[in-house]
Amino acid sequence: MKQILKIAALVSLIALSVFISCKKELSCESCRTVNQPPVANAIDGSTSSDPDGSIISYKWAKIAGTVSSKIVKPESTKTVVKTLVTGVYQF
Length: 91
Fold this sequence. Notes:
Blueprint: H1 2-22, E1 70-71, E2 81-82
Antiparallel strand pairs: 1-2
């Protein structure tokens, strides 16, 4: 009977060890907030804002309109667009 108790205790100890070693580690991945997009001001980029922090760079790009336009300084807070023709553009 003592032998059975020793084996049962040993099996229980091994099972407990495996359970503890396989237990998932708690993390805070779900605690993080989702990154919010910046709020852009297309007239003056320097008045744009980022609800999660600060804006570290700018990159003007045309997303709709004729091919003729040319962005002079795409990394600047304010920029000039040249060679525009009559039409509707989105930057």
